[in-house]
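We emphasize that the prediction below concerns an isolated chain of 213 residues; any contacts that depend on oligomerization or on bound cofactors are therefore not represented. The input was used exactly as deposited, without trimming of termini.
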Amino acid sequence: MKFIKIGNINDFKFPSVISVYKYHPFCKNPFFTQNKLHIFTRRVIIRSMKTYVLTEKKEFMRLLLCSETFDHFLVSEASIHTVVRYEVDGRINKDFYSKEELAEKQLDGLAFLPYGRLRPFFYDLIRGRHTPSYFKFVLMLSPDNQRNTVLASGTSIQPSDVGALYINIQYRDGRLILTSGVSYLTFIPDKSFDKEWDRYAANFLKKNHVTFL
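Result of the prediction step, given as a token string:
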């Protein structure tokens, strides 16, 4: 396959083009081939920051399942493996409720369901004599909290640059970890906000007396 240089990536102003920079030039799906420019739409760049090993697993699970600590986050997805596997897509099915019901339940304007609405369901799946062999929760800030967090960071990053601010919680092989992550809607060389979000995650754990390595 022949690559033809047709310009610098910084010359392209479309987020969908810039955000696939990681596929060029050494990959199986390059976007410069012959005289054709392939544009992958709705592609985002996700940068994961620091991983925290949570040492007091029982105490953390109490916070996660029996308290309101994480209730203000939204559920992007969740996976729980017990005797069968439960895969949860946190997207709200807008056809389930009327517009009036969505407003009454304070769900209008949200694409994903708040963790607090699903927490009792997760609790019922995880509690019991047998610990799940694996689980994962991908949580993210609500649009308002995300915007406020970006603006309060003091960085050059704008709210329109950020797709989502994530906290990923994963249990595997007896190890419980939390990882922070940011998805960008465009190519952002500046990593200053990455550090701020990592600091937010660490402060959030400390505030809730979660011990970690």
